[in-house]
Amino acid sequence: MSKKQENKIGLDFKTDWAYAPAPEDTKHITLQKQYDLFIDGKFVKPNSKKYFDTINPATEQKIAEVAEADEKDVDKAVKAARKAFEKWSKISAKERGKYIYRIARLMQERAREFAVIETMNGGKCIRESRDIDVPLAANHFFYNAGWADKLEYAFPNRNPQPLGVAGQIIPWNFPLLMAAWKIAPALAAGNTVVLKPAETTSLTALKLAELFRDSGLPDGVVNIITGAGKTGAAMVNHPDINKIAFTGSTDVGKMIQKSIAGTDKKLTLELGGKAANIIFEDAPIDQAVEGVINGIFFNQGHVCCAGSRLFIQESVADIVIRKLKDRMESLIVGDPMDKNTDIGAINSKEQLLKIQEYIKIGKNEGADFYQSSCAIPSKGYYCRPTLFLNASQSHRIVQEEIFGPVLTIQTFRTIEEVIEKANNIAYGLSAGIWTDKGSKIFNISSKMRAGVVWANTYNKFDPASPFGGYKESGFGREGGLHGLMPYLKF
Ligand code: NAP
Ligand code: MG
């Protein structure tokens, strides 16, 4: 079997989510040279007249210029959202739901375009954009549309009311999906939105703006403003925003929390993670190895809930590590637009340097370094799948979020020992358990300080299930009914 054929069984995602057509035909997808801000239903030039370059990390080529919003643009967007709120919060909830359904359907129709642009701008594999990001984003709109006119049944006797204008700031790892996670519940609850995508991945959010315009959504209900950290800070500090929803790094999350202290803005923070993925000796080993591969290499490891710390029970450590190394050899790293690619491009040069720095740190700390021998393209930002064996609890590579395809491996003997080690960390976003025993799953998941615990699977997402963290992974939940609550007052 050739490597390509063999890999068809690889990091493959079968979903029963909304249908998305195959995106392999990229010829008819055209990008604009320059993208403006989307304010009050129209694309407008930024106050500063400044634009920044956005690149394709797989080729390092510039693909477009994107407007840089300053404080004046933020103010304009907030004013538009405030004006729109007066109407949007008063139309019937059923009408609101209809708009959100329409957005979901339009996204399905344009799924191919969204998938291709997501891959070009962010470096993620087309198979993932096509089969995970886009259909799941559409499903968040479908799911929340259904709640729009049922909020009083969802929260009986509590008279749920929208908050007003929501300022939403999202990261670069799932640009479209994070926009959907945030915008869909905000709209269903009757709020209006100003959203800022991350600097390196603005294009699908701007495509989404086109879709809002085409859907007939009233002007100003969603405004998309692009820029870097300063633009985000201007949103956080704007006095007429009622709620900030932030997904990103723990450091920026802490800064935001400080800046809004003393105001009456509501806040939810979805921050970093460093999840334990635990394999017991009674686990179905092949399935567990596949789950570990998916847990850390999905989306190049740019996943807040990535299973980045593997714990293997000592008696099966040798066989798990052997199978893991074999499986890593079959992973294809390279052109994200190729359907056979398993690991695409690292999102930016900055992120690649950060990952390389952590690899250096891991070697210096004395963990055993192992990398797959695959070829990587000479142009673009790439990192081979990497393991650190015999890592220890005090290592920085075990304690800190790397946000790349780098897995640390530790072994354990007893349940008590692994629970202690898994929880002994600043983060608490997610965890994975692999075992044949249901009782063990219930026992351990109740003791994990993690917002999401997967058992005998990993990285499974559904719009109906809440997602969020403990400790330095943040607070508040997104998804499910829990995800509507932060956009409502009672
Ligand atoms: P980041 O640097 O914190 O940026 C996140 C967003 O905040 C970006 O849009 C960024 O803009 C903006 N920003 C930067 N400085 C800001 C400031 N002072 N005030 C307001 N906004 C500011 O994070 P990232 O590097 O993009 O994303 C990776 C991180 O996100 C990881 O730590 C990951 O774990 C976390 N994450 C968490 C979840 C979750 O659900 N818990 C999900 C995905 C990712 P620019 O990028 O344009 O500067
Ligand atoms: Mg950043």
Major beta sheet, strand line-up = 14-15-16-13-12-18-19
Shape: globular
Helix content: 25-40%
CATH architecture of the largest domain: 3-Layer(aba) Sandwich
| Distance between the amino and carboxyl termini | 60 Å
Structurally, the number of domains stands at 2
Q: What's the CATH first level of the largest domain? A: Alpha Beta
What name does CATH use for the topology of the largest domain?
Aldehyde Dehydrogenase, Chain A, domain 1
Largest sheet: 7 strands, mixed
Bound molecules: NADP nicotinamide-adenine-dinucleotide phosphate, magnesium ion
Residue ranges: pLDDT <50 for 5 or more in a row?
1-24
* Tally of contiguous helical segments: 16
Q: Overall mean pLDDT score?
A: 94
CATH homologous superfamily label of the largest domain = Aldehyde Dehydrogenase, Chain A, domain 1
Number of strands: 22
Helix/strand structural class: alpha/beta
Tell me the β content. 15-25%
Write a brief caption for the model.
The chain is of the alpha/beta class and 490 residues long. The chain has helices spanning 3-6, 71-88, 93-109, 111-122, 126-147, 151-154, 175-188, 203-215, 229-237, 250-260, 285-297, 317-329, 349-365, 396-399, 415-423, 438-447, and strands at residues 34-35, 37-39, 42-44, 51-56, 61-67, 161-162, 165-169, 192-196, 222-224, 243-247, 266-270, 276-279, 309-313, 368-371, 386-389, 406-412, 427-428, 430-434, 452-455, 470-471, 474-475, 488-489. Helix 3 (93-109) runs antiparallel to helix 5 (126-147), helix 3 (93-109) crosses helix 8 (203-215) and helix 4 packs antiparallel against helix 8.
